[in-house]
Amino acid sequence: MVDVSEFPVTATGTSVQILETLIERNGAGVTEIADVLDRSKSSVHNHLETLTGLGFVIKDGYDYRVSLRFLTIGSYARSQYPLYAAGVSEVAQLSTASGCSAGLAVLEGDSVVCLHHRLGPDTDTPRVEAGDRLPLDCTAAGKAILAALGEARRDELLAGHTFDSGTGQSHSSRSELDAELGTVRTRGLAVDREEWYPDQRGIAAAVEGVDGELRGAIYLLTATEGLSGKRFQQDLPGLVISSANSIRNTLRESETGCRE
Amino acid sequence: MVDVSEFPVTATGTSVQILETLIERNGAGVTEIADVLDRSKSSVHNHLETLTGLGFVIKDGYDYRVSLRFLTIGSYARSQYPLYAAGVSEVAQLSTASGCSAGLAVLEGDSVVCLHHRLGPDTDTPRVEAGDRLPLDCTAAGKAILAALGEARRDELLAGHTFDSGTGQSHSSRSELDAELGTVRTRGLAVDREEWYPDQRGIAAAVEGVDGELRGAIYLLTATEGLSGKRFQQDLPGLVISSANSIRNTLRESETGCRE
DNA sequence: AAATGCGTTCGGTATTGGTGAACACATTTA
DNA sequence: TAAATGTGTTCACCAATACCGAACGCATTT
């Protein structure tokens, strides 16, 4: 958890700290939070009353919980990314056609965030949710995005990166990663071979806008079990690439003002 | 917009006011916000720096935008409702089987909120998003939920209700609504006949937990065009009711500790 | 009937959020 | 080239307020 006291408006920091406590504990009461955060009950009570009044917290009985207002604002935040509107129906199509789970991811700040995820017919893939952060170096989407960035930005993201997430089947150093990113760039496709979750493979392609700048990535997730080499190396990659192209076209239409 | 100064922690109120401005204007800069809210630039700057540090706001260039952190927390808030986990795959099935859009809604505080929405193959239904609020009296989901509540709670929700949302095809008074809610209770099904959006019809059924308490509703949305009377009065209602039953069973399993 | 749990209210005070002016930097105008 | 305008940012001052701690009301438990 971030140290909330290092920012100029400490009261807002306290409110957020209380929100995080509510999330961590799946709802809590005034006294409980005051204990955990080592604050007075009255202070906590004031914050909760404020957050409730503002619609971010719901009180039921003795418990306070975070409200669906976050989902409302979250849906809006997602709609800020043109990739979402342009890609959501293509994800449905990709997921149906491939029988795999599929989704969209974007780079926000220094993390790759899942914008949308659709569970496939073979339901035994990890339960990724919209809003989840994806590891940079051991997921197909992360690699696709890294490869599409300029070197300066990539260096920023990987500064101090430890290469310790995922299953350990992935790279152990920056130079190994850089080598793979070269391949990703030439193929226009990134893969993850059981590097993120055991028995799970991923395939992803970056999507750029009309200006050539990165808009995000579309990815596909599937269980290794019963997956033939040809399917992983030819069929599925083909579907992902064609989906990415389709999204690029939709994006071009919306970014240039429709069917130029 | 709520008056933010009526709550004890005014600084949090100000932060939220700034967030709302960012949403309203699709991102904004320090000066712009200071103008709109009639506050000093330094104050706005401090709040934005705090919100950025806490991860709720993203700065790109001169603009600040709300971040996907809201989506992350929103997904969590949604997962607090057992109806979501129990119903999301049933919604997919219902949507596929019926060819309509379908979704889940719950009562939070005094509003009915959409937990999940899946666009159907016939894509010309309103673009409902997770987190959207649904009108109480002119949507099928709203009526299903109202009908399932105790009288006291229903009175609370409808106190001061104006019956002016939707297309105007709906009820104009509380007594008319009450009459329909009786029918809803006996049929176990609520409908909306172009009352919310023109040319759109809805069907919904409430879902209760093992304690008999309301957990929310599952709904279906479809265009009137090309919809036969039999389909709207028999086929689709049958699908919705069987979906609701299926979710009730899933809920029972999870609430009693799996396959009792 | 006493004791413990909860959330809430209240006054006092040290902290701090807000202001407005000055600043650095970029872009636009003359 | 120089001035003018537009950003976001920094700073010192002061009134406003977020915080504390004790008291309170109300349940539930002992």
From TrEMBL, chains A, B:
Pfam family, one: IclR_C
Assigned keywords, A-Z: DNA-binding, Transcription, Transcription regulation
Entry keyword Transcription: yes
GO biological process, one term: regulation of DNA-templated transcription
Single GO MF descriptor: DNA binding
Source taxon at top rank: Archaea
Keyword Transcription regulation on entry: yes
Positions of the IclR-ED domain: 69-253
Domain HTH iclR-type span(s) in chain numbering: 9-68
InterPro entries found in the cross-reference section: ArsR-like_HTH, GAF-like_dom_sf, HTH_MetabolicPath_Reg, Tscrpt_reg_IclR_C, Tscrpt_reg_IclR_N, WH-like_DNA-bd_sf, WH_DNA-bd_sf
Name this polypeptide is given: IclR family transcriptional regulator
Organism: Halohasta litorea
Taxonomic lineage: Archaea, Methanobacteriati, Methanobacteriota, Stenosarchaea group, Halobacteria
